[in-house]
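Quick log. Single chain, no ligands specified.
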Amino acid sequence: MAIKTIVVGTDLGESGHRAMQLAIPTAQSTGATLWLVHASEVGLEHAWRDLPLGARSAAQALRERLKGRFENSLQELESERKRCEELGVSCHTSCEEGHPWETILRTAVSVNADLIVVGDPAGAIGLPERLLGSTAERVVRQAPCSVLVSCGRIRRDYTGTRIAVGVDFSAHGIEAVRWGRDIAEAIDCEVNLFHVVPHPITESMMPTEWPSVLEGLASTARSRLEQLIVSEGLRPNTRVHVLDGPIGKMICNATADIGADLLIVGCRGQGRLRGMMLGSASQYCLRYSPVPVLTVRP
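-> predicted structure:
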């Protein structure tokens, strides 16, 4: 895990502040450069030449208001940049017109980012967000690199903390394990590997043969997790947990139960509609995780 460039999406409000709470310590521990990205409102660069004469004065007034907001955003970004520099973190800023997720993704590609940090998606409750996803969810689905989302409780210092890693033995899951290993080495923390045997069955509907099937699947999964500890070079004190039930829900509950401070999951980047129809563990975790979520791509 080599992190040299981190793109931080900020709305210059509470969500952006939470993203910075994660981005700055990460940059300090890795020596990475930060790129602070803010998207201004659409309309600043449009001349509205096709508007009727009677509407042009109103359009010009709106343009002036947008211009004022844009200039204020530039000043706030500059203040954030200076704060980062005072903390010993190299920092650049970018303020563009457009949708936040598009601006963040475009910047991440242009600067060859190793990590994107964005704010909490929990505030997205409108119909467009429910159908298409919050800024954080859209970034996670389309990002060219791993994404750290400031969900839940954020610590001031992550040294010596506890990490939960969701493992499904796919390439994405194995990469999540590697990130967990590297973070543990960097900040001396404990890693817990979670594998969930998925099933939608409730106890009242559970077939009589299910407990024996579950026992066999759990035993196999536990052996594979223990093999991962050796093959991926994790510390011997790494803990393994095998659960059964809905994947996202079980991972979030287990993360809270062990008092973890960071959750790492693999992300395939599946579309919003497919995620709504079939369910997505990473999407669930973004909504309900009690702690920040690092979504990892191989």
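The beta strands are 5-9, 33-40, 91-97, 115-118, 146-149, 162-166, 190-198, 239-245, 262-266, 293-296.
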